[in-house]
Amino acid sequence: MEFLPDITKWTQALLRWGHVFFAILWVGTSFTFNYLDNKLPKSSKAEDAEAEGILQH
What we know:
Elements: H1 4-39
């Protein structure tokens, strides 16, 4: 059972770096959706209510 500590170290390293990678992806998609949401034309008409919920997440 000498290999068990090595497997534990590699698993911890992969989980840690995976967490960092997905956190960066999360922030990037948040900035992307905010950018796209700000590009939508602002409408104040009540009849245009369908366009208000296009990029909400």
